[in-house]
Amino acid sequence: MALHHSPSEGEEGLLANLAELAEMRKRVGPDFWLMWDCWMSLDVEYATRLAHRAAPYGLKWIEEALIPDDYWGYAQLKRQAPPGMLITSGEHEATRWGFRQLLETGVDIIQPDVNWCGGITELIKISALADAHATLVVPHGSSVYSYHFVVTRTNSPFAEFLMMHETAEKVVPMFSPLLLDEPVPVDGRMVVPERPGFGVRLNPDIERARPYPH
Predict the structure, then answer these.
(1) Burial letters for 132-143: b for 16+ Cβ neighbours within 10 Å, e otherwise?
(2) Can you state the percent helix, strand and coil of the chain, rounding each to 5?
(3) pLDDT at residue 213, as a whole number
(4) Are 16 and 43 within 8 A, CB to CB?
(5) 132-155 pLDDT, tens per residue?
(6) pLDDT confidence of 210, banded at 50, 70, 90?
(7) What is the pairing mode between strands 109-110 and 86-89?
(8) Inter-axis angle of helices 10-28 and 44-54, to 10 degrees?
(9) 61 close to 86: Cβ distance less than 8 angstroms
(10) Backbone torsion region of residue 143, taken as left when φ is above 0, otherwise alpha when ψ lies between -120 and 50, otherwise beta
(11) Is 156 exposed, middle or buried (0-12, 13-18, 19+ CB in 10 A)?
């Protein structure tokens, strides 16, 4: 879930965040994983308060509460988080050297984006570092560019799939209509394409032009 209310809104915003969490927990029942994506918008003090007040609702993890370069902040947040609540980050981190520092903070899951972290070769090296730290790797939504990676790793238990349909009424491919043959999950399971490369093709009907000047 996106975290909709920022620290600038004070206690009122924090209560609004908790109300949204409580409503979602009521909708999905006690066993469904709920996670907050904070998109680098918090500080350690607010993230710690939010985590402890969200714990009674069974929040599974807090994602990217701080900017990825705040390694000391992540270490502090991990120490102060409620027992059992996972701290995750990394979609905006890059290269094995940046991830080495992030891993040393003790975060529970790293989430490199294969398109941003340095490519599939760098992602494999990052994953090896994470394995040495007993840390899970759940790549940021990259469709087939991470699915092939996930199925080959023992420390990557599942893939992230982004809901891209305008009204979330049906499951559509993440990069549709840009790519053809892109798989979608069915009942939570994904079949990785066995065609050459990543198993997808550029859609020839899509205009190959940047929509913005730069």
Answers:
(1) ebebbbbbbbbb
(2) 35, 10, 55
(3) 79
(4) no
(5) 999 999 999 999 999 999 999 999
(6) confident
(7) parallel
(8) 40
(9) yes
(10) left
(11) buried
* Spatial distance between the Cα atoms of 17 and 111, rounded to a whole number of angstroms: 23
The contacts of residue 109 (CB under 8 Å, 6+ apart) are 61, 86, 87, 88, 135, 136, 137, 138
User: What is residue 177's DSSP assignment?
Assistant: T
Q: Is 140 a catalytic residue?
A: yes
Closest alpha carbon to 129 in 142, 112, 143, 115: 112
Distances (CA, A) of 11 to 16, 21, 49, 50, 97: 9, 15, 10, 10, 37
SS (H, E, C) 102-164: HHCCCCCEECCCCCCCCCHHHHHHHHHHHHHCCCEECCCCCCHHHHHHHCCCCCCCCCCCCCC
Single out the catalytic residue among 4, 5, 52, 140.
140
Which CATH architecture fits 7-202?
Alpha-Beta Barrel (3.20)
- Write down the domain spans for the chain: 7-202
Residues 6+ apart with CB under 8 A from 32: none
The overall pTM is greater than 0.90? yes
The residue with tokens 């998109």 is 39
Q: Which residues have CB under 8 Å from 50's CB, separation 6+?
A: 14, 17, 36, 42, 62
Alpha-carbon span 152 to 174, nearest angstrom: 21
Strand order in the sheet with 109-110: 35-37, 61-63, 86-89, 109-110, 136-137
Identify the residue whose tokens are 């007993």. 134
